[in-house]
# Entry
Amino acid sequence: AGAIGVGVDRPGTLSVVLGTSGVVFAALPAFARDPQGRVHAFCHAVPEGWHAMGVMLSAAGSLAWLRQLLAAPYDDLLAEAERCPAGVEGALFAPYLSGERTPHADPDARGAFTGLSLRHGRGALVRAVLEGVAYGLRDSLELLRELDIVPEVGRISGGGARSALWTRIVASTLGLPLERTAIEEGAAFGAALLGGVAAGAFADVHEAVSACVHVRETVEPVSDWVGVYRDRLRALPHALSRVAAARQIRRTPHGRSAHMTMRADVPAAHAVAVRRKVTAIPAAVLAAALLAACGSTQSQPKVYTSPAAPGYVMPAGQHFQGRGSKTLGTIVVHKLSKLQWASDGVVFQLRDAAQRIKVRTQEHAGTLTLRPGTYKKVEVLAFGNWLITITPG
# Structure
């Protein structure tokens, strides 16, 4: 339905979705599949039709994750990113924050920043995320081309497509003009069109699309960026191969590392998947570094006391970090405070003295306001790395 809502009812036009996840979708003239299963082939919403699509799990979700860590408005972050050059002077973000589907099909894939230097600031991190997601979408496009799909144009939708900068980056990375449709709610609008066909308002899906889906704007690739991204795509496998965090690991029967090897069965843009076991910079440590870069972890008055387990209170007395499920103990908040967390995947909850759950969240990152009082049980039920920071509210 989402593809119908942006007018992708026949071959020639791609649907490019920049939602929490990212999708590159193409209608097929006939059924075709990737022998390695790196892209999905299903029935289209058009009767007797087929489609193929590549899906990445963290597209606009990657930007949302970074924005929460940086605690800044999207507009400010995107404005800073726009002042950075294409290619971000070598900085790279691998957008595998929650595993990956296309092209790796690896639930243990993990994200990483590489190529950072003292020259890189907050805007550079944001632009690296925008470009890293675009490279991931290019992975899907290259796999679709292996199925003899020859796209002429893309129709872009999703929350991330509201950013003019990100749309230009994606257009330049894919090497395709991207069109915005008059109605942005692609999935809901597509479902309405299909309902109209079922009710007899239109003879078929093609008539519904022709009558109702209209292009309001075309975003062309930026000529100065196209070459930069083309060169970057060629260089990415070499750049990532230098980072142990961005390598595939083979395990011995006892679960230890036998050796690491590059993935050779995926496109060049992201030729390696990041395994949790060999993360060079754990997610919690990376989160701490990002918070520190924004001033969130600078010396501040202590706002709580806690008899948390040894090893889980950072020297500054304001950070808890660890891996896996932990019960941290009691937090006594003396004044209005802000609690921030970031994780690979976590259920985080606080209980009061009567063991009633006062706060519970399942998000990967976020912020809570803690009012003065005692939280008798602080529980982190997680399968990965996590970081908790408490600062004055």
Remarks:
- The first strand starts at residue 13 and ends at 18.
- The two ends are 44 Å apart (CA to CA).
- Confidence is low (pLDDT under 50) at residues 241-317.
- The longest helix spans residues 122-145.
